[in-house]
Structure formats: C-alpha cells, structure tokens
Task: inverse folding
C-alpha cells in the first residue's frame, strides 16, 4: 500500500522558544488506522492541528496524497476531516444545517441524502431538525463526527474521540472507525486510552514532549518491548524465597503461595526451564502456571519514563 | 474558487439573521423611527431649512448611514467573532477556502443584512418626511460601498476582539462618535472654520456628504472625493484582512 500522508522534518517553535514539535517524521499508509498515544501536552493535538492547517509550523513538509498542504492546500484539505477534542458546535443551529454548512465549506455540492444516511449511521436521523443545544453530550459528539464526515474525507482525524463518553458510545465509535477503514478512509486518532489503541489501531505512535518516540505495528510493539510475567502457583505456601532462585527476577506473592517471575521477550532466553527444574530439585511442588503479557499501557509508561530518566 | 464554500458561509450567516429577526431588523427600524419622531417632527419643525432642504429630509441620509455603518460593523464582527468564541473557527481554518472566499461569505452576508436594513429605513423615513432622491443609482452604489467597507472593518474588529467587551469597544467609543460628528444631523458648513478643518479628518464626513448628495444634490465635499474616500477605505480594510490571513494573526497559533 502506498504512503498517503507523509511528514518530513516537521517542527514547530513558538516565539518564546518553546518547541512544540521536534523534527517529526511520519508516513501513514492508505486505509491505515494509526493511534497517537501520549500524555497531556505531548504535542498530539498540535501535530493534528498542524496537518489540518489550523496551526502553523516552523520547518518541514507535509504532503497528503502527493499534495503539499501549504502550496496545494485546497486539494489537500478537501481530503481531511477533523473531529476536535472539544465539542465546538453552534448551539442554536439545527443538526442538518450544521452538516450542510460543513459539506459546503469543504467545497462539496449539496447532498441531503448522503447527509441523512450519515445521520442514520450515527443514530441521529430523528434529530436532524433539532437544535444542537437540545442534544445530549453523546449526541453532540456524534454530530461532531458527522460534521467531519459530511464532505466524504479520505483522511479522518479523531482527537480524543472517546474522552468522557460512555462505554456503549465508545464501542460504537470503534465500530464506526473500522467501517470507515473498510470504505477506504485512513484514520489517525489521538487517545489517552491504551485499550482504545489496542482495540482498533494497526500501528501505534508514541509522542512525548513534541517528539515522536516511535511508530510501530501494534502487535510487534507489544512483542518487541513487552515484558512477560510467569506466575507459578504452589501446592503449599513458602516461608521465604528459596536461595536457589535468587539469581532470577522473581518474587514471592503476597499469599506466599505463588512465585512471580518477570522476564523480557527480547532476551531470547526466558529462563523458565531452569526455574522449573530448580523448583523440582528443591522439592517445591507447583500446581499451576500462568503467563501475563504487558499491555500497551505498561510499554507506554516504560518508554516515557525511560525518556524522562 | 470554492463557490460552495462561499455559499455555505453566506447562507449560514443569513440564517442567523432570519433566526434573530427581531434583534437584526426590528430594533434598528424602531430606533431610527424614534430619531425621525424626535429630530424630524418634534425638533426639526423648529429648525430652518439647510441648503434649501427641510431639516426632516436633511437628516434622512445621515440616519440611514448611522444605522448602516453600525449594523455593518456589528453584523460582520459578530459573524467572525462567534466562531472564535465557541471554537467552531477550527472548521473554517481547516477548510479549503481562501481568505478572499471567507471574506466574501462573511462580509457579503453582513453587507446584505445592513443594505436590507438601510432600504427598510429609507422606506420608513418616507412615511415621516417628503423627499425625492435625485440620483437613485448613485445612492444605491454609495449604500453598497458603505455596507461593504464597514462590514470589512467589522470583520477586522471581530478577529481582533478577544472578548465581547472588546467587540463593543471600538463601535461604541470610536465609530458612533465619528458618525454623530460626521454630519448625520448637520452640515459641516454650519461649523466654525476650525471645526470644519477638524471634521475633514473624519472619514465618515465623506460618506454622509456623498450619500446626501445622491439625495439632494448638495454636499460638504465633492462626490468624487467621497467616492475616492470610501473606495480607499475599502481597499485598506481588504489589505489588512489579507495580511491577517497570511500571518495568522489572532487566528492561527
């Protein structure tokens, strides 16, 4: 698949010297779902705003389907839809009118049947003539998405799309993102929820202090950086950790009836075999074994902390 | 050219006008009618003719200008300030529209509204005083140019303003006094020579004078000067807006 969005050496400096984005390089393929993870103030929204043209940048180049977003902004922006983090809507406007406005603004001819279809997909059709002020928070969030999709974009930015929404709406949104991808839309979302990235993203980018620390395929990221834990359930409780196991990163569980061994997949040699034979030699009987893979959250925290250190 | 974009902005703004018809239309008409009652009928009947025009008729162009200028500024400044205030400006900044198209949409809608109000006031004034318009074509041209120029000024104010207080500040402290002292209710020839010279620094004098000429063929300054002044003012405002969009001042971080 060809690159759809290309960012080369993007940086953004404020007049006071603050570097909001530090030489960002990124390539996103068509129909890909990329999740950008990062703590508050990491630069996620700034990056999105810069690509959309809301915010200016100092150096670098951004192209979308071969169109430079500055030199050929019309062609580039026509393809972009954006759902901002904040619910920014005209309270006294009707749902359908606000969609018609967005569609027209992005240079598309009127098409009420498309807009109504969109409203139906977002369970908003019965609210088409309601004023936005009359809608619930969740419905406003859906209107925000409908506005971003009103001009049939090929690249959709979702800035913290599920912040503050209930579980049902979150699941609906994930479903919508997958449906959009199936229709050929590329999706870039920022999120605080690691489970969101794990659930829907193809690749994950980790951003902190304006720097893109890494972008990697979700599965391989977990595998490459993931730590695993082996939990050994014992037949009988132990007083202390046997000295034979002192060379390993192993601790006695709080109930004293389990041993927790932490190891890294990257080392290639887990040491599990040796631990189990040492236990058998010492006469310690185990009744069960479990392994636990570290989540993206653990990886994210370890990467950010590593950087801070 | 993004015609759909211009149309979308224009239509959206006009919808707001019709939704808030009372504030947008009825209140300036009532206010102007009160001016006619007070200055035209009550006080005007005791004031002698100016340049062979009855005082009631003499103030008609000034009153229309007063309303049109304040309405153009307020419609346009509110039109662009409101998206900034509620946050929907992101959509405008990320859309494939040029500064000129944005201006056409917002300023076009604001000017249409004030032109409409100006024409309604003109019709209302005919109920109070008797007068003829000597040059109706020029009168319409002047009215349109004034609506556009001050809508452009309002657009700049709307971008500049950071809160509602600032939005009201310039119209209240600068524009209204300039309109009142620009000859809405008098001819500047009635002033002493010193104040006449001072008045010539007030751009509104040229607008009201030119507009009054279209009605009665009498003016404080020549019509050519008035036309140059209003066109120059419009070009200046356009240049400032072009710079704002290029630099991103008050819009883009």
Result:
């Amino acid at each position: 698949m060809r690159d759809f969005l290309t960012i080369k050496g993007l940086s953004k400096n404020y007049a006071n010297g603050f570097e909001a984005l530090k030489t960002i390089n990124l390539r996103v393929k068509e129909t890909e779902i990329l999740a950008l993870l990062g703590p508050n103030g990491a630069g996620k929204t700034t990056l999105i705003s810069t690509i959309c043209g809301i915010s200016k940048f100092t150096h670098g180049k951004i192209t979308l389907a071969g169109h430079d977003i500055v030199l050929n902004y019309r062609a580039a922006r026509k393809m972009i839809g954006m759902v901002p983090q904040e619910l920014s809507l005209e309270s006294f406007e009707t749902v359908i009118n606000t969609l018609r406005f967005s569609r027209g603004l992005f240079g598309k001819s009127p098409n009420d049947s498309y807009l109504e279809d969109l409203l139906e997909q977002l369970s908003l059709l019965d609210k088409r003539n309601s004023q936005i002020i009359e809608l619930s928070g969740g419905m406003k969030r859906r209107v925000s998405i409908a506005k971003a999709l009103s001009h049939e974009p090929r690249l959709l930015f979702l800035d913290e799309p599920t912040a503050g929404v209930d579980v049902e709406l979150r699941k609906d949104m994930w479903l919508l993102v997958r449906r959009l991808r199936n229709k050929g839309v590329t999706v870039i979302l920022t999120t605080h929820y690691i489970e969101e990235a794990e659930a829907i993203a193809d690749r994950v980018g980790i951003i902190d202090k304006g720097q893109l620390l890494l972008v990697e395929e979700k599965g391989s990221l977990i595998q490459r950086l993931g730590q695993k834990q082996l939990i050994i359930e014992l037949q009988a409780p132990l007083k202390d950790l046997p000295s034979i196991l002192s060379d390993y990163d192993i601790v006695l569980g709080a109930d004293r009836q389990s041993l927790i061994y932490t190891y890294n997949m990257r080392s290639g040699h887990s040491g599990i075999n040796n631990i189990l034979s040492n236990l058998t030699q010492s006469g310690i009987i185990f009744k069960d074994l479990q392994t636990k893979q570290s989540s993206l959250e653990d990886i994210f925290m370890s990467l950010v902390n590593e950087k801070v250190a | 050219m993004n015609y759909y974009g211009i149309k979308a902005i224009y239509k959206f703004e006009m919808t707001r006008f019709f939704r808030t018809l009372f504030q947008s239309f009825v209140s300036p008409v009532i206010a102007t009618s009160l001016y006619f009652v007070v200055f035209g009928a009550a006080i005007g009947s005791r004031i002698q003719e100016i340049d062979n025009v009855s005082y009631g008729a003499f103030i008609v162009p000034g009153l229309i200008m007063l309303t049109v200028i304040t309405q153009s500024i307020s419609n346009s400044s509110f039109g662009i300030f409101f998206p900034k205030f509620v946050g929907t400006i992101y959509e405008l900044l990320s859309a494939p529209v040029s500064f000129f198209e944005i201006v056409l949409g917002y300023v076009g809608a604001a000017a249409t509204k004030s032109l409409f109000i100006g024409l309604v006031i003109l019709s209302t004034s005919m109920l109070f005083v008797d007068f003829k318009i000597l040059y109706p074509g020029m009168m319409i041209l002047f009215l349109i140019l004034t609506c556009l120029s001050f809508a452009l000024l309002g657009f700049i104010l709307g971008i500049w303003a950071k809160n509602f207080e600032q939005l009201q500040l310039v119209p209240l402290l600068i524009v209204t006094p300039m309109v009142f002292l620009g000859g809405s209710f008098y001819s500047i020839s009635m002033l002493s020579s010193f104040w006449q010279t001072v008045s010539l620094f007030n751009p509104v004098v040229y607008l009201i004078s030119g507009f009054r000429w279209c009605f009665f063929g009498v003016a404080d300054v020549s019509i050519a000067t008035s036309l140059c002044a209003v066109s120059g003012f419009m070009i200046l405002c356009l240049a400032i807006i072009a710079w704002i969009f290029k630099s991103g001042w008050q819009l883009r971080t």
Observations:
- Chain A touches chain B at residues 14, 49, 52-56, 73-78, 80, 82, 84, 86, 88-93, 97, 100-110, 147 (CB under 8 Å).
- Chain A has three domains: 1-79+154-226+294-309, 95-150, 227-293.
- The mean pLDDT of chain A is 85.
